[in-house]
Design brief:
The complex is a heterodimer of chains A (about 230) and B (about 220).
Chain A lengths: L6 E5 L4 E2 L4 E3 L2 E5 L17 H32 L2 H6 L1 H20 L13 H11 L2 H14 L4 E8 L4 E8 L11 E8 L6 H4 L3 H8 L5 H12 L1
Antiparallel strand pairs in A: 1-4, 2-3, 5-6, 5-7
Chain B lengths: L28 H23 L9 H9 L8 H14 L12 H11 L2 H14 L4 E8 L2 E8 L10 E7 L6 H4 L3 H11 L3 H18 L1
Antiparallel strand pairs in B: 1-2, 1-3
The chains are: A alpha+beta (about 230), B mainly alpha (about 220).
Chain lengths: ~230, ~220
């Protein structure tokens, strides 16, 4: 199953026209749910197929749907010059747009064991991790501890600070993207610690989820991003 | 508890005022076993550990909540303290065969402040549905008015200067086993089948008494 992020053009349902000419013909780009590059059950036993299906088909889809709705409303508000409506829509765009972006990254951060999930990073990312955290185990321990300590909903991230050229571990609340913690931060690995990411399987024991998720982390993808950003 | 600011100086994990399976089929026994038995228990146990040996030790729960809220710049014990309080309040906001429309003075006040029970329902439902991430929706009382409030994570109306009367927990752990992502269905079930209007009325009386005694 190939991953694809399909953007489709859709015309705004209201063409503006003055007496003599067409003022605006604007297509707004909408988003669709990307396919997972593996079957729902392929990450078991680390993450159950039931969770993967609901997480992808319900939670992520809802972010996409609500994001598209917000963008359409934004387009209309902008065309009408309704400044306060534009401002009012910002939180819906932030929540849902970031929810879509974060989850799109997350699916790529995971891989079945037979496709390299859990295999330690090699190359430049592997070395950088050893330099900054002592070892992969050191990084895993730190991220797991910080992920467990997130109160409420959020994410724990391994990021690259492009400017300072160093690796960073940080957490964000709700669907806040990593960039809210630093403008030059690029996400390499994000782990969803919203309860929906683990509850059906791990219940209240988030640390157990965090212990097991590393078995399916796709370090190949993280390395690709790291190498791209470093050059 | 009758008063909305009941003090739990011993930080006890009080059981709900009904058996863990008594809210079925609307809220499963399994949910209560985890939500009360694990989540709520952990907040109480962790709070005890957290305040041990500090100036907060032995202080009433509402004191700890206000102190650690620290005007929004939360101190470490806030999460456990407020969540311990919130969950006890939540269990007591529900009862078997609850829900539906209240009557008497409570209905009159809802109609006064929201124009109708249906409008109150709509507002409470919207607050619960749109609290993004983890949090709570509340019916609260302040300045002789009822209002609907939504709060993130562990925040509650106590720290916002109003008396809580009713709450619904919208952290995912509150509904995930029974409803998965379907928070709107959970809210509807809560409103139609679980709300204890008796508890709300009792809390309102306490709130009014507390307000007039400080007037």
């Amino acid at each position: 199953m190939a991953i694809r992020c399909v953007a489709s053009r859709r015309t705004l349902a209201g063409l503006k026209e003055t007496s003599s000419r067409l003022i605006g013909f604007r297509g707004i780009q909408t988003f669709t749910l990307p396919d997972l590059p593996y079957d729902y059950g392929a990450l078991e036993p680390a993450i159950s197929g039931e969770i993967m299906q609901i997480h992808h088909q319900k939670h992520h889809q809802t972010y996409v749907t609500n994001y598209n709705n917000a963008l359409e409303q934004l387009d209309q508000a902008v065309s009408k010059g309704d400044a306060s409506a534009v401002v009012k829509l910002q939180s819906a765009i932030k929540f849902n747009g970031a929810g879509h972006v974060n989850h799109s990254i997350f699916w790529k951060n995971l891989a079945p064991v037979k496709e390299g999930g859990g295999e330690p990073p090699k190359g430049s990312l592997g070395s950088a991790i050893d330099t900054h955290f002592g070892s992969l185990e050191g990084l895993v321990k730190k991220m797991s501890a910080e992920g467990a300590a997130v109160q409420g909903s959020g994410w724990v991230w391994l990021g690259l600070d492009k400017e300072l050229k160093k690796l960073v571990v940080d957490t964000t609340a709700n669907q806040d993207p990593l960039v809210t913690k630093g403008g030059s931060l690029v996400p390499l690995v994000g782990i969803d610690v919203w309860e929906h990411a683990y509850y059906l399987q791990y219940k209240n024991v988030r640390p157990e989820y965090l212990k097991n998720v590393w078995k399916v982390i796709n370090w190949k993808y993280a390395s690709e991003i790291y190498e791209k950003e470093c050059n | 508890m009758a008063a909305s600011t009941a003090v739990t100086a011993n930080y006890v994990l009080k059981p709900p005022p009904y058996a863990l399976d008594a809210l079925e089929p609307h809220m499963s026994k399994q949910t209560l076993e985890f939500h009360w038995g694990k989540h709520h228990r952990a907040y109480v146990d962790n709070l005890k550990k957290q305040v041990l040996g500090t100036e907060l030790e032995g202080k009433p729960l509402d004191h700890i909540i206000n102190k650690t809220y620290n005007n929004g710049d939360l101190l470490p014990a806030f999460n456990n303290a407020a969540q311990a309080w919130n969950h006890e309040f939540f269990w007591e906001s529900m009862k078997p065969n609850g829900g539906g429309k209240p009557s008497g003075e409570l209905l009159a006040l809802l109609e006064r402040d929201f124009t109708s029970y249906e409008k109150f329902y709509e507002e409470f439902n919207a607050a619960a549905a749109t609290q993004f991430g983890a949090g709570w929706a509340w019916l609260a009382y302040a300045n002789d008015k009822l209002k609907v409030v939504k709060t993130p994570n562990a925040v509650n109306p106590l720290v916002l200067g109003s008396f809580p009367l009713l709450t619904i927990d919208v952290w995912e752990h509150a509904y995930y086993l029974d409803f998965q992502n379907r928070r709107p269905d959970y809210i509807k079930t809560f409103m139609n089948n679980l709300v204890s209007w008796e508890a709300v009325s009792a809390r309102l009386e306490a709130a009014k008494a507390a307000s007039s005694s400080s007037a």
